[in-house]
Amino acid sequence: MKKSTNIPVLSSLKWKRRERTILCSLATGSEHLEMLGLMAPTAAYYAQLHRMDSLLLPLPDKRLDPSRPPAWDKIVLIHHMLKLYETVIWIDADAIFCDPRKDIRTVLNTRTPMHMVAHRTGRRKIPNTGVWICRSLPKTFEMLHHIWNSTQYVDHRWWEQAALMELIGYDTESATFRGATPYTPHVRFIDREWNSRSSDCAVNPIIYHYCSKPKPIDDMYRKYVAFMQRVLQM
């Protein structure tokens, strides 16, 4: 099937902005739908606490672009929301908030198009788009279109993340940094507390990401319960 090179327009999505920032996610497939069911209440609470809008979409029988693997749908949603919001915060459905107290915007540079965590793997630091903060700037749109048009990565094991990695100077096979490109300065890495994983976890993670397989639903449920207990004590 031919892969489109224009980011689809979500003309059917009717949405009214209330705040200047939105936190968003979506899920397809039974496993990620189950994980979104646990993540969504934590994300909605976080957004409300910090005066953000939130859109957390379970899509059991619908895709934003069925011509590509599901991971690419995040580009479609982020691109659409950047036309409405100053800041779009994306979080993968297999991630969950652990501590809602700190506002992620306090660690952002408002002039930098994109922020994310780079996970440490040995001596390498690998950018991860599981938590991806985008500012509504011309350079952000330019980069998203470059990523979308990198069709050689449509079926890569890291999908849109691989396209972004190449854009900012990484070799996508060895996951090593080759050297700066014109786009490297436009991505800023933030502390791993915002996207912790089992092999690279902060002491007190704010967001924990189950980015490897298998997906431990039971552990995610325990983090959901711990989050709710923390909220009740605030």
Automatic annotation (TrEMBL):
It holds the Pfam family Nucleotid_trans. Keywords: Glycosyltransferase, Transferase. One of its GO terms (molecular function) is glycosyltransferase activity. GO terms for biological process: protein N-linked glycosylation. GO terms for cellular component: membrane. Residues 72-192 form the Nucleotide-diphospho-sugar transferase domain. This is Nucleotide-diphospho-sugar transferase domain-containing protein. The lineage of its organism: Bacteria, Bacillati, Bacillota, Bacilli, Bacillales.
